[in-house]
Amino acid sequence: MSENLKNKPNSPTKSAANDDIGPPWLLRDVEGRTLMCNLHFLGGNQRAFSYAQLSQVEYDPSVGIKLRFYGEEVLIQGRNLSALHQAFLVERVESVFEGDSAQDIGRDHEPFIDGLRITPRRG
């Protein structure tokens, strides 16, 4: 079962007035791993990647999280992404939600994802 489902940006229960807004991702319970990670883009598009194809995870707070899959690289940009990075290392991230900057309430201590980018992998 997933954690924080009711707190996702695309969830009908999320609002800027809600003080119980969780991180913009879903995690699998600690007892198991997930097979794929699904990216949810602002326009409604989704794209899933298999953990079996994930070869490298990099985290630089000033850049974001880089996920290197066979043939493609995913860049997750935002703030306070350390917990998300740790969850990728143990294959617990089921979904990542791109947020709308206009809905960012600006709490520096809370995580926020303002960009999801997929590019062909070089070398």
Please tell me about this protein's structure:
With 123 residues, this protein is mainly beta. 7% of the residues lie in helices and 41% in strands. The chain has one helix and nine strands; from the N terminus they run βββββββαββ. The strands form two sheets. Strands 1-2-8-3-4 form a five-stranded mixed sheet, with helices on one face. A four-stranded antiparallel sheet has the order 5-6-7-9, with helices on one face. Strand 3 and strand 4 form a beta hairpin. The N and C termini lie far apart (37 Å). The N terminus is likely disordered.
The gist of it:
The protein is mainly beta. The chain has one helix at 82-89, and strands at 2-3, 25-28, 36-40, 46-50, 54-60, 64-69, 72-79, 93-97, 112-120. The strands form 2 sheets. Strands 1-2-8-3-4 form a 5-stranded mixed β-sheet, with helices on one face.
SSE arrangement:
Blueprint: E1 2-3, E2 25-28, E3 36-40, E4 46-50, E5 54-60, E6 64-69, E7 72-79, H1 82-89, E8 93-97, E9 112-120
Parallel strand pairs: 3-8
Antiparallel strand pairs: 1-2, 2-8, 3-4, 5-6, 6-7, 7-9
Order of strands, widest sheet: 1-2-8-3-4
Strand-pairing-aware structural class: mainly beta
Mean pLDDT: 81
Helix content percent band: under 10%
Shape: globular
Q: How many separate helices?
A: 1
SSE ordering: EEEEEEEHEE
Low-pLDDT runs: 1-20
Rounded Rg: 14 Å
Total beta strands = 9
Distance between the termini: 37 Å
Largest sheet: 5 strands, mixed
Strand content: 35-45%
